[in-house]
Amino acid sequence: MDEARESAALVLDQTAYSIMSGSETVSGAASSVAQNLGATAGYIHRADLKTAGQDIAAAVKRYPWLAVAAAVLVGILLGRIGHDDRDRNHRNKKGSGAQYC
To answer: pTM of the entire structure?
Structure first.
């Protein structure tokens, strides 16, 4: 689990750095996203699974509608990813049949 946390934190750090250094004229929104990614990466480095779970539970209690919206968004994204994979697999099976003459 620690390897997954370190890997996720590294990806967030790299993404934040890429956004910040990608252009001299980074918009305010992109800069904000990069700062939040960096902060999230730092949190992932510091927090263990129990602490993260407690923090998530506290955030859900504090902002229940935001938690519902986030859950819906994650569900849509996961469904979309799964749907795209099924479509890709279906297309590959349709076009991969061997042709015998």
So the answer is: 0.42
